[in-house]
Amino acid sequence: MKAHLTITTWADALPGASHYYGRLKVGVKHFDISRALTQPEAAALNLDEHEAGGDFRPWKVGDESGCFFSEAAVEQAAIKIVRDKYPEVTLLFKGDPCILDPQPVLIGPEPLKTELNGLVAEAKANDWWEGDVKHMTNIYERWRKVVPA
Q: Which has the closest alpha carbon to 127: 115, 117, 139?
């Protein structure tokens, strides 16, 4: 079974925005991911909200939050959720489930994971569809042979 992790953020697009959010699609289930806050994370969220002004409920250790401080932290949380709760998942992609182009593989059997991530790297080096279209078509066709739509 395939699963997809979509990561969103306003960081670098909106002044003061610094959080990342993750949404998993496993089979027909779609859900936002969260985790229990550690002391440093709770303190950082309290500081962020205090600086933003207005009323807010202080965050405490153990509170559930979908705010992550890096893309890598979202990936790590998603991998843990999939491994712990969805052992039937054989491939976890980082990307939108509606996109058919090559996407990074976070969970997958070796050497398949290496092969697929190699195709992603090749597509990036080609500048995706903005580059050599014939070469990208070849990459896409190789991807589709291994990962059907």
A: 139
Domain boundaries, the chain: 2-99, 109-149
Residues 6+ apart with CB under 8 A from 84: none
* φ and ψ at residue 103, rounded to 5 degrees: -135, 145
Structure confidence at residue 54 (pLDDT): 66
Residue 130: predicted pLDDT: 97
Helix (H, G, I), strand (E, B) or coil at 57: coil
* Nearest one of 101, 99, 105 to 130, comparing CA atoms: 101
111 upstream amide cis, omega within 30 of 0: yes
* Mean per-residue pLDDT, 71-76: 97
